[in-house]
Every structure is written in structure tokens, then in C-alpha cells.
């Protein structure tokens, strides 16, 4: 009695024990899909086979019918055991005096597959266990769930798990593209277990006539498509670096991950990288990496990650330079000045001395003597010009005033987790990137500037289970006003031209905020830039960290950056938002005070609550004033400005001001809309009566657009 009670308890416990979703899909593959829905990678299943899971409604109906006829004709009627099939098989085997046929149902075959690691070795014990589990599965899950799990995991030839993977590896086609003959053939090889021709045709014809009774098959074409098959890996080499990196971030054992990565964009960027490196490879630039982040309403999405010039080129090609720590050069300067703004240490009138100086490092008897890349000193500079022209000495002085520990704390908050020692270890060079960074870290930090100072989670994938894969959490780095001021500086085309020349790779016919960086001895070249929608980050160098031959960030990485930025925008133009609490003024470049008519000056944003500097009292030479106008600048209208016409006001009092500052010898022209170009020599100051509509004002240098702003009249 005790033994019977124990048995009953054991049976009851077995049927009460839940069959988890993980076990039901034990041999499902892990699949990564691109933003376009392209399969980037199908990883092998836990038993080393190739798999490809599909929802049941994606399988061809005739294929499903053929499988049911061949494997379990009464699948919809039984609860795991087909007693009619058992009796038929027993009688058949008795008459043949040997085991000639079986009666395993689809639930029994599924149980054998998903519980292979727990099944007993003894043949009869294993059969009994399969039967119990099959009944348990049938009582737990619906018929459609069991059938889907079976079709996706049944053992097939060519080391395939499931029919979808077998279709690709045997016939070289997606399962939805199989011919009727190939669909029936797949159902046949489930029971046959191999692709051999012995008895195949006879089995095929029997099943064919049950599935398609009124039609003859094209058996010749079928056999011709079967001999060796095709082995596809469904991978796109341009996305391999991303795939490997994503796997290192921890992925589920199986399921589908929809990533924001664009396979098409990755391939296009890979081509750009390969083409541009040909021109600078002789200078020691062997590899480049690119990261593109798209800014959505509530998060950032990783759209592209290209880690080298060619994943297959050599051993270094497999290195993902987008996530390798390298000396960051001048790319951290915007954040140094941003910290100073937020802490109230700097203002629009702050001036820096770009001169030969020696600074203490905090260590006894040790000094640090910073140099600029051009080995020259420019004298007194405004904060804006110090940043845009990327002068090293002012950045070091700014860092000293802020405090290196404050900068280090900021960088750790921004995701630079590798900075594990104290500020004294890195010294003043921390402001010049001596602590290092990865391209992805920098892209995320600049994405925060484009989001009014808030670093948002970077989405890298979403699983079918509803889990979001992301890098980092929401983190405010800088205040909105400071971020907008820094962005306005980085988007200053006129000052950029003073630093990099009239023609440079950071010039676009739309507004782009950008910063270059070049590490010591030209070992690394960087450009990170952004618009309100995209962040593009580029690194150029070599895997060994050897010096390049004068390949600066502006020239080496800039050429790739320019093409990628144009590629992702494809004609779209965006304007950065400027808060109502900021206003534009003209600042004298030599004094930092409000510019008088005679002052060489640049535009500056200041906060309404900020104390307005007094008017400059310096006397400036004609040479200084003329140098200030070397590159024309549109002063009015402002980008994105909207004029509203008053119905009761005269047209003469509602004229739109077109104001451009330019030197007398300037060769530039300007055009409003589709009007012919006019010279800007000596500057432009005119007032136009414009109808309601959208307008574009362009500055051109020998026909090429160098500046463009859009405004509207309503």
C-alpha cells in the first residue's frame, strides 16, 4: 500500500510539475536582426546545430500538412499518445517479425528532442519517459504551440535543427520560397533522417499523392536541387564587429533580438571607410572606425558600428576599434568648458591666454608645459575661439581652474568607467584626453550635448521576450543652457574656417556641430559631430598605436566623417534649438567684451540672467578688422527664424533684413532662394519685401555652398 501511495504521489507530482518556456524552446537558435528586418546572425543551438525559428503562421500551409500526414496524422485528436498508431505498428512489427515501424507522435518526438539531456539510456525506459513527457506537454500547451516548437527543433540533415534551417542549408532557399516538391521532400527526410536516394523516391511519391492528389510532381528538378545543398551563414561582414560586441554584452540563449543597427548603412559606411583609407594608408592610417547614433524622442539608438577597414583583411581587421580605448586628444575639451560654465567659473566674456606656460602637476619638483599642435601661441583668446580652434594651452588652464578631480568625476559619470585611478595619476593632460576613451563613449557623450545635456540610454536591441538591451541609464551631464551654448560654439562655421581653412571636411550646407581630436604624435585622429537627429563619430589610426605621418583628425577622420554625415542626412536639414533664456550678442575677439563697430568679433550666446559685459574700449588696427572678415558670416536672418506679417501694417515697415559681414576683397556670393548669386564684397545690408513662405539664404564660394540658413515668413 505504501509503495502504491508513493507511486501515485510521484505521478501526481510529475503532472503538477510545470514545463517552462525555456525547456519547450531548448534548441531554438539565437537570431539577430537588423533595423531593416535582415537576419544578421543565426548562432548555433546549444547542441551545435544550425537553427532558424519561425512562427507557425509563417510556415507554408502545404508543408505543415505534409509533415502532419507523414509524422502524426491524428495530431489534433490525441493527447500525446496515438493508440491507433501504436496498435497498427505493433501488428505490423509482429507480422514482419522485426521492428519495422514506430508510432511516435509529434509530442513524443518533441519530448525526445527537448529533454535529450535527461532521458534514460535504456531504450524501453526512454520510450516510457518520452510517453509521459508527451502527455504532460499535451496537457500543458496548445496544439499550435507544440507544432511550432516541433517544426523549429526537429532534427534534420546537414546539422540542422528545424525545417526553416534545413530549407536554407539543403536547398539554399528561405522556407517560404520552396517549391511544392521541396516542401514535401522536407517532410520525407524527417523520418528518413538523411538525404540518401535509397527509398526516397518511393516515400516521396506516396506522400506527394496524399498532399497533391491531382498533380504530378517535377521529380527531376527536385533531385537536381538536392545533391549537396548550400551552407549559408546569413551574416553581413560589415556588421560583424557589432555582432561580436553585442554578444560580449550578454545575450539570451535563444530567441530573436531586433537591433537598431542598419545593415544597409553599415555596408555603405564600410565602403566609405575602405575607399578613403586608400588615400592615407601610406601615411600609416591602416584602420578606421565609425559609430552612428540616431536620436529618437526618448532614447538614443545605435544605427551603425563599423570597427575596422575590413573585418577579413588581417588579424587586426577583426579588432573592433569602435570600443578600444585610445588617447582621446582634444575631443574632451567641450566638456571641460561645459563644466566651467555650469559651475559659474566661465562666462561669455572669459578670456584665456594662449602662451607658453609651465604648470605644476602636484608632484614635487615636476612641471607640465603644454604645447599646441601647431607649436605656436595665439595670445589672448575668447572661450569660443579657444574651443573651436582647439587650442591646448587654454584647455589646460581651464582644467586647472575647474580642478582635475571635478573633471574626472564628470567623465566617470559620462560612462568613462576605465578611469579607475585618481586625478593626480592622469595629471593636467586629462583635459587633452590622456586618460583615453573609446569611440562609442565619445559618441554617447556628444549625444548628450545634442540632447540638452542629458545622456540617455543607448538602445542596442530588443528581445522577443520584451527585454530591452541598452548601454547606460539616463544621466544629466550638463545643464540645457550650457549644452546649447557649447553646441552653438561647435557649430560656428566661420571660426572653424579660421582654424582649418576655407575648405575643410567639417563644412556642410547645413548646420553641424563638430569637434576634432589628434593625439600625441598623430597616433589617433578623431572627429565627433552631430545634428539634432544624428551623432557621427569617426576614429582613424592603426591597431598597434604607432604614429601616423601628420594625419590629423580634421584631415584623416574628417574625410570619412564628411561623407557619413551627408549619407545619414540625405538632404534633410535640421536646426539646433536655442532656449528663450539665451540671447545672441557680438563679442570682441580680443577683449571678450561687447563688440563695438570697430571690433573684430564673433557671435556669442549669453544667458539672460548672466551679467552682460561692458562695451570694448580697445583700439583695433585695420589689419585686425580685415582679418575678422576673411570668411563672410550671415548675421540676419538667424537660422530657423520666423517672421510674422501683420495684416494692418504697411509693407515698407515689414521688410526682412538680409545682413552679411564680409571683407572688401571677398570673392563670395550669396543667393536668396533661386535668385542669381550676388557679391558679398564689403558686406551686405539690404531689406527685402517677401511674401509668406519658406526661404533659404546661401553663401557660396565659387559656386559651392559654404553656409546655408533657412527662415520663414508667415
Secondary structure blueprint with pairings:
Layout: H1 2-16, H2 21-24, E1 30-33, E2 39-42, E3 50-51, H3 61-71, H4 83-96, H5 106-114, H6 123-140, H7 143-153, E4 155-156, E5 160-161, H8 163-171, H9 180-192, H10 200-211, H11 219-224, H12 240-248, E6 255-258, H13 263-280, E7 287-295, E8 300-306, H14 333-342, E9 351-354, E10 359-360, E11 367-368, E12 379-382, H15 383-388, H16 392-402, H17 404-413, H18 423-426, H19 439-450, E13 454-455, E14 458-463, E15 468-471, E16 475-476, H20 480-490, H21 493-500, E17 513-518, E18 524-530, E19 534-541, H22 553-569, E20 582-588, E21 601-607, H23 622-628, E22 633-636, E23 642-643, E24 656-661, E25 669-672, E26 678-679, E27 684-688, E28 693-701, E29 704-713
Parallel strand pairs: 1-6, 3-5, 8-14, 23-29
Antiparallel strand pairs: 1-2, 4-5, 6-14, 7-8, 7-19, 9-12, 10-11, 13-16, 14-15, 17-18, 18-19, 20-21, 22-24, 24-27, 25-26, 25-28, 28-29
Structural overview:
It is a single chain. With 714 residues, this protein is α+β, with helices and mostly antiparallel strands. Helix content is 34%, strand content 19%. It has 23 helices and 29 strands. It is elongated. The termini are far apart. Mean pLDDT is 85; it is low at 228-235.
Defining traits:
714 residues, alpha+beta, Beta-lactamase, ten-stranded mixed sheet, five-stranded mixed sheet, 29 strands, 34% helix, 19% strand
Quaternary structure annotation:
single chain
* Relevant CATH superfamily of the largest domain: DD-peptidase/beta-lactamase superfamily
Instruction: Average the pLDDT over all residues and give the rounded result.
Output: 85
The top level CATH class name of the largest domain: Alpha Beta
The count of DSSP E runs of length 2 or more, i.e. the number of strands, is: 29
CATH architecture designation of the largest domain: 3-Layer(aba) Sandwich
Secondary structural class: alpha+beta
Query: How much beta, percentage-wise?
Result: 15-25%
Query: How would you describe the shape?
Result: elongated
Major sheet attributes: 10 strands, mixed
Distance between the termini: 94 Å
